[in-house]
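Example with several molecule types.
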Amino acid sequence: MELEKLSINVRNKSLKYLSQYGTVSYINKNSIINNSNIILKKSKNKIISPVIKADGYGMGAKALIKTLIECGYKSFFLGSLSEGLEIRKKYKNVELFILNCGQPLNITYLKKYKLIPVINNLKDLKLWSQYYPKKDPCILHMDTGMNRLGINLQELKDLSDKDYLKNINIKFIMSHFACAEDINNLMNKTQLEELLNCSKVLKKICKKEIKTSICNSSGIWLGKKYLLDIVRPGAAFLGINPILHKKNPLKEVISLYAQITQIKEVKKNDTIGYGRTLTIKNNTKIATLSIGYSNGLSRLLSNTGDVYIKNKQLKILGRISMDLTVIDISIFNSDEVKNGDIVEIFGPNRSLEEFAKMNKTIPYEILCTMGKSNPKILI
Amino acid sequence: MELEKLSINVRNKSLKYLSQYGTVSYINKNSIINNSNIILKKSKNKIISPVIKADGYGMGAKALIKTLIECGYKSFFLGSLSEGLEIRKKYKNVELFILNCGQPLNITYLKKYKLIPVINNLKDLKLWSQYYPKKDPCILHMDTGMNRLGINLQELKDLSDKDYLKNINIKFIMSHFACAEDINNLMNKTQLEELLNCSKVLKKICKKEIKTSICNSSGIWLGKKYLLDIVRPGAAFLGINPILHKKNPLKEVISLYAQITQIKEVKKNDTIGYGRTLTIKNNTKIATLSIGYSNGLSRLLSNTGDVYIKNKQLKILGRISMDLTVIDISIFNSDEVKNGDIVEIFGPNRSLEEFAKMNKTIPYEILCTMGKSNPKILI
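Resulting structure tokens for the full complex:
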């Protein structure tokens, strides 16, 4: 990040965080708004309920929901009851859908905080029907092949006692794609058809139209017929590429930085860090950085990863420590780098997607892992 | 965890957390006290300053320090200024040593919160001497071969202007082992000797005895001569094995649990989860668990890891999702498991060390990664 391009306020806050925490992460609000506009266009006037589970993919559900409410969204999916409560405390009038309401189904809690449950099995549905006939809405989760959570078509068909379903206020039914990021995967169509069949069966039982939802972020890119009534993008707001092996149509949102804590020279045959896993071949100038595996720089990157200073790619030397990492800065002259200089982990020089690949994982896991340990600034 | 063995209070809190967060982590206070007693004995009356950096290795520095103060400790090492402030707010009378004080050295902040800096380079030392001649104490970090942070012996010897050192209140000098967990590694002795040489050089300059410290947790197990004046155990309090390839002399402290969210049957040729990475060979009973990579169950364990229910080891099926994981529970009869049943990730059936091995990393990284996402109960 070129600090000079940031406002004085953000600049001062950045320096404070780097000094006090060692790291700073930026969440680019304009990029979220840009991505929101792309999602709106792709979703063709369907209802959009953003997903901000796992504390907004580690980025802070509270910060995210504020921006998303400004973008005009009125209903949100959260991962757990605790996440629902956290948001409800501050936002009284948004609809909050809870993906996992715990076992046993916590009806008192749902009622108290006006949280709308996503119901995953018939037992919970029956329980809900006894407490909430026709009154408060719920969402039914159908399992169309993910084999993770949800009720499947056969279970619906096999129901001996179907009448109680008429007394439930089903807001919509939803399912979850297994392979939505792979646009050519035949499973997507199979799952869509299965959900539509569930909807037909329920329509017969309940004698009313049942709304449907199957698209996560990637689903929205599968084409118009998949959009159904409600779409549920999450990662797309954060700029995570929704399409496998294609150029990311979204703008990067998140970037992560640390600072140089110390610069020193090491000599030929010196070793670096824990376990002495690296022996230096030539006299080398090294910098120790204020970031380690506790801030999201995975230990997997020991001796293999790299970071950026002044747009130059610099190798990680030795094992990554808990909150420190050593890199090779021999390419710089002594007047070019100094203690306190800012170091890019991912950002303008490397996308989150590329950083995730280097970590042998997906962007989601990077965000969830690094999110909670680093102070964040919405810029 | 056998919930029945816990107090009613803890039991109710556990059920609440499992229902609302999906997970619960226990920190066993008696085990910490047990480990503290072992550390005290091994440290032979030297001063012990516990390290609780990276938010107490992810376990919550505030909860840890409370127990450690009860054990009688009066000074602590923290990773950053922000951690120092967090603890200082609550504890006014403990000594807090800050390992990374940020760049540039934040003297105002150190002064305001009575934080004692660990000074890593000569430039910062000079700055400190100008602001704090003889007054407030500091700790000098010597680099004896870790090549990460610290001043080295040669730098001390080469100092042209040595007089300012006399005016600094050096509480002690410290260094950090690169290979302390490997009791046979010759580097340990080399580093010890280097630190003692630094101490001699400083003694000459400052014309007074200089206290020394080199032992982290593992160092304490290297033998009496390594103990010096102050030892700095951290992970040992949390039961992390201090000695490579030997039986852990400490008690396990941390355990992690989730709950069963749903049970279902899948058929031959069905696939599980994202990307359909697993095709089921025979009809199988599966359970979906309320934990995923955002709670510390790394995506690396997809299709390879396992968990425990009722002391039975159960395979993870398909890819681990953000907050859900599917396992094979075919070995159980239908009356043996139900929604809401508790699932051990690590605990009585598998140590943190074994779990870390399964994750191809070290216990420290597991704790830092899982720590912040899971509610914790001190039991």
